[in-house]
Specification:
The complex is a heterodimer of chains A (463) and B (453).
Chain A: E1 10-12, H1 17-22, H2 25-29, E2 35-37, E3 58-59, E4 68-70, E5 73-88, E6 91-98, E7 107-110, E8 114-121, E9 130-132, E10 156-162, E11 167-172, H3 177-182, E12 187-192, E13 203-212, E14 231-234, E15 245-248, E16 252-259, E17 265-269, E18 274-279, E19 282-283, E20 291-292, E21 294-297, E22 302-308, E23 313-319, H4 345-348, H5 365-372, E24 386-389, E25 392-396, E26 400-406, H6 446-450
Parallel strand pairs in A: 3-13, 5-8, 7-12, 13-16, 15-26
Antiparallel strand pairs in A: 1-2, 4-5, 5-6, 8-10, 9-11, 11-12, 13-14, 16-22, 17-21, 17-23, 18-19, 18-20, 18-22, 23-26, 24-25
Chain B: H1 2-18, H2 29-37, H3 50-63, H4 70-80, H5 82-101, E1 108-116, E2 119-129, H6 131-201, H7 207-242, H8 265-275, H9 277-298, E3 305-315, E4 322-329, H10 338-403, H11 409-443
Antiparallel strand pairs in B: 1-2, 2-3, 3-4
Helix pairs in contact in B: 1-6, 2-6, 3-4, 4-6, 5-6, 6-7, 6-9, 6-11, 8-10, 9-10, 10-11
Keywords (chain A): Copper, Metal-binding, Oxidoreductase, Signal
GO molecular function (chain A): copper ion binding; oxidoreductase activity
Signal peptide (chain A): 1-29
């Protein structure tokens, strides 16, 4: 995380690559240059230097795409191409993305902007782009076959429309989308309100929920997996690869989350109540909002939540499906809780020399063991649970990050402020002495309350 | 005396014709030694005297001091196997036949005595089968040929024993290796079955999962019992060949490694016909039968021609004896010898055809043995270089997945069992290779015995 918020690091590929070979030089000269990102870290927001002013968003572990103004039209150039995305330190995935990363860069425009987007296809198959949630002319909706011919490999298509409605949107292919979305081809879109004073916030974050099934030791997602994914990611990053959301105390914060996985995600924030202020359908009227600490984001939906970060600390922010805060694990691994194994290890290691007993007291011991002794994993694999906090193992993975609320941060300072320093008397502590006996329901039921009584079936009499 | 002069003539004629056959110094054993030395480097000893037996016992004790390899096991068998000693005595039997054939038949004395009222008739004759003087040199040649054949066949017994001992040795070592692996499998299956029991006790598993895991253990027990039994059989087979009790046998831990390369087939085909002892023996037998046929042809009319001095008294007891010669021979009135000749001819032709078939079989056996040798080499090499390392790699990769809690410990155990199975298969194919190699060597010497095939 040292290079968190490193300077925006672009490398420019003007007129290079496949596009050059399929589009004439003259035509290419008419295209905006291709800008690409090589880092998976959160980049500083892109402040507009041309066009209408707006308050830019921060794309979690991502970046926003620069544009050029052409006769009053904002021109962007998206290139769909194979990319290598670091899911978290120690693991890289072979994905499809836009302009060097998956998800692609966030496109930020202002309500009423005339937008022209060049889409160059450097994938091995046809593609198209659907501007999810936006009111566009039917012929710009990007459903291949239905509203346009698919973009063949090597070809560049142009989408032109007006960003009519402010809000949070996504873009993704609508051609062989099962494959292309499973491969990570997607991006965020923000249309800022024309009036920068409309629903202003101090910090505006955006990311997409996505999921991959990458077998331990391999690099490419299994695109046919429907539900049993093993990597639950935000912007194609898994904990501990997801950057923290750093905010100043009392900042008004907006977090926009889009769900392009195949299941819902109850996104839960600790320490604060928030309101859902927007969906991809528009802004929620203030009278219709209600307080929440968890909002369930359905498949294909986008939610914008807002709150005042009035509670300093390092607050967990995560999907509440507990397997979604884990990395790759064996879903068929039997429960070994309470099964003593130590005395069998010697016999077993006759055949399996490196065998170690695990799971007897729970899964957390895995982190301990990994720390205690070198316990190698398959290559290119993240531990099932990992991460260190100031008090030890966090035992998390997947869709997990932290909201770091600190006093006195500078405006626009998103640098990781480190561990929270707890004021005296605000940290849970160990009780020293004899713990009082907890009251039980009834003295006669004491045994039943301690031991689980398993009644075994003795016949079919009760059936 | 004329009577004895004739006898003397007979004997001297016979000696001149056949030469006197006597017992040799080595009893034919040197020839056997020489032949077997062409094929194996081990020594053979025909221990007839107590001193020789003592020396053999010392040598056996010496050999038992270190774990046996294939060569020392063969040496032990050659020294200690009683059947082989019995074979050596076959040399004595055969040589005695030679000596016997070179000796003249004993002279025959016959007497007729009749009396009638003071009249006597007495005929006395000392006759000698002079026809044997004609047949003796041929008989001697036949027996000598037979003796040669016996030497070849005793040498073949030596090499057969060496062959069988090698087979038994490899089987025994392989059985040891298999047993130790199946013991490991059994132990860890036991551990995982116990783990399964504890899973049920903790409430984490149901009866189905437990039963499934238990059944691996149950099968491992059977596998172990079978391996144990095979090991006992293999060791007993070796024990019989070495004529030594099991508790004295300590074998090397592992089978010898596969050789780097193997020879081409034509190397074996070329030498085969000069080397095959069974072919040599069969040729000698055919030669002997040819001589036998010749003999039968020359003697077809006469079986016995006996001649000797005779004296006759006829009349009063005091009358003088009349002296003369008694000659008798069989009249071929009913048996012109044609049946004998036909039989000898048929026997000879039978041998000729058998020899021809044996030569054809020998060629085929060598090709077959080579194919088995070469195939087993390739298969064992494939197991060693491909299957076992792959299984090992799979186990290692699964170990990593177990570390990451990606697979169950039971899946890991099942994998480990599969890995062991691949090692066991390698041992089995390595064993097969050494058996095939031994069989190939034997196919160059004679028809391989059934054992180990």
């Amino acid at each position: 995380m040292n290079d968190f918020l490193s300077r925006r690091n672009f490398f420019k590929l003007a007129g290079a690559g496949i596009a050059a070979s399929t589009v004439s030089k003259v035509a290419m000269a008419a295209l905006p240059e291709i800008v690409s990102a090589e880092s998976a870290n959160t980049q500083t927001p892109l402040h507009p230097d041309t066009g209408r002013p707006y308050n830019p968003v921060v794309t979690l572990n991502g970046w926003s795409l620069p544009w050029r103004m052409n006769n009053g039209v904002k021109e962007f150039h998206l290139v769909a191409e194979p990319v290598v995305r670091e899911i978290a330190p120690g693991m890289k995935a072979h994905l499809w993305g836009y302009n060097g990363q998956s998800p692609g860069p966030t496109i930020e425009v202002v309500e009423g902007d005339k937008v022209r987007i060049f889409v160059t296809n450097r994938l091995p198959e046809v593609t198209s782009v659907h501007w999810h949630g936006q009111p566009v002319p039917n012929g710009m909706d990007g459903v291949s076959g239905l509203t346009q011919p698919a973009i063949a490999p090597g070809k560049t298509f142009v989408y032109e429309f007006e960003a009519k409605r402010a809000g949070s949107f996504m873009y993704h292919p609508h051609a062989d989308e099962m494959t292309q979305m499973a491969m990570g081809l997607m991006g965020s879109w923000v249309t800022h309100p024309k009036n920068p004073k409309f629903m202003p916030v101090d910090r505006d974050f955006i990311f997409l929920l996505n999921a991959y099934d990458i077998d331990p030791g391999s690099y490419t997602p299994k695109i046919n997996t429907m539900l049993d994914f093993n990597l639950w990611t935000w912007n194609s990053r898994a904990f501990p690869g997801i950057d923290p959301l750093v905010v100043r105390k009392n900042d008004r914060v907006r977090i926009r989350v889009g769900n392009l996985t195949m299941t819902n995600h109850p996104i839960h924030l600790h320490g604060h109540e928030f309101q859902v202020t927007g969906t991809d359908g528009g802004w929620v009227p203030p009278t219709a909002r209600w307080p929440e600490v968890t909002t369930d984001i359905g498949v294909g939906q986008m939610r914008a939540i807002e709150f005042v970060a009035n509670n300093p600390g390092d607050w967990a922010f995560h999907c509440h499906k507990s397997h979604h805060t884990m990395n790759a694990m064996g879903h068929q691994v039997p429960t070994l809780l309470g099964v003593q194994q130590g005395d069998l290890v010697d016999k077993i290691s006759n055949l399996v020399p490196d065998y170690m007993a695990m799971g007897e007291t729970g899964m957390a011991e895995m982190s301990d063991m990994a720390a205690m002794m070198p316990m190698p994993l398959p290559e290119n694999t993240l531990p099932m649970m990992t991460g260190k906090g100031q008090f030890g193992d966090v035992n998390m993975g997947g869709m997990f990050s932290t909201l770091k609320v600190r006093e006195g941060l500078a405006k626009g300072d998103y640098k990781d402020p480190g561990h929270y320093q707890f004021p005296k008397g605000t940290l849970a502590y160990e009780f020293v002495g004899d713990a009082p006996e907890p009251p039980r329901q009834s003295a006669t039921d004491e045994k039943a309350a301690v031991e689980v009584q398993v009644r075994k079936p003795t016949g079919h009499a009760g059936h | 005396m004329k009577f004895f002069r004739i006898m003397l003539t007979c004997v001297s004629v016979s000696l001149a014709l056949g030469g006197c056959a006597t017992f040799s110094q080595d009893g034919g054993f040197d020839g056997v030694k020489k032949t077997s030395a062409e094929h194996i480097k081990q020594e053979i000893v025909w221990s007839k005297t107590e001193a020789e037996q003592k020396a053999v016992a010392d040598r056996v004790a010496e050999l038992l001091k270190t774990p046996l390899n294939a060569d020392s096991a063969v040496q032990l068998a050659l020294l200690n196997n009683k059947d082989l000693q019995a074979s050596f005595y076959q040399l004595g039997i055969s040589e005695a036949d030679v000596v016997q054939a070179g000796r003249l038949p004993n002279p025959k004395f016959s007497m007729l005595y009749a009396r009638n009222d003071g009249d006597y008739k007495i005929e006395q004759a000392l006759t000698f089968n002079i026809f044997s003087l004609v047949t003796m040199p041929k008989m001697l040649e036949i027996e000598r040929s037979n003796f040669e054949k016996t030497k070849r066949s005793v040498a073949l017994d030596v090499l057969n024993l060496a062959h069988e001992t090698r087979l038994a040795y490899f089987n025994a070592v392989a059985a040891n290796e298999r047993l130790s692996y199946s013991e490991q499998v059994k132990e860890s299956a036991e551990a995982s079955a116990e783990l399964a029991n504890r899973m049920v006790k903790a409430g984490n598993w149901n009866a189905l999962e437990q039963a499934t895991e238990q059944s691996f253990y149950a099968e491992a027990i059977v596998e172990y019992a079978n391996s144990k039994n095979q090991q006992t059989s293999a060791h007993e087979a070796l024990s019989r060949l070495l004529a030594l009790p099991l508790d004295q046998l300590v074998l090397e831990k592992r089978l010898p490694d596969l050789p780097q390369t193997i020879d081409e087939l034509h190397a074996y085909e070329k030498t085969a016909f000069e080397q095959r002892l069974d072919l040599q023996a069969m040729r000698l037998e055919t030669q002997a039968l040819a001589k036998q046929l010749g003999l039968t042809k020359t003697t077809r009319f006469i079986n016995v021609l006996e001649i000797g001095p005779a004296r006759v008294l006829e009349g009063r007891r005091g009358d003088p004896y009349k002296k003369g010669v008694d000659i008798s021979f069989e009249l071929p009135l009913f048996d012109w010898g044609s049946a004998k000749v036909a039989k000898a001819e048929a026997t000879y032709m039978q041998a000729v055809n058998r020899t021809a078939q044996l030569a054809i079989n020998a060629q085929s056996e060598i090709r077959e043995a080579y194919s088995r040798y070469q195939t087993n080499y390739e298969v064992a090499k494939h197991y060693r270089d491909e299957i076992v390392p792959l299984r090992k790699k799979v186990l290692q990769e699964n170990q990593l997945r177990y570390n990451g809690m990606l697979i169950s410990p039971f899946e890991l155990f099942a994998n480990a069992r599969a890995q062991v199975a691949s090692v066991n298969s390698y041992i089995a194919t390595l064993n097969e290779f050494w058996l095939a190699e031994t069989a190939l060597q034997m196919s160059l010497i004679g028809s391989a015995s059934k054992e180990g095939k």
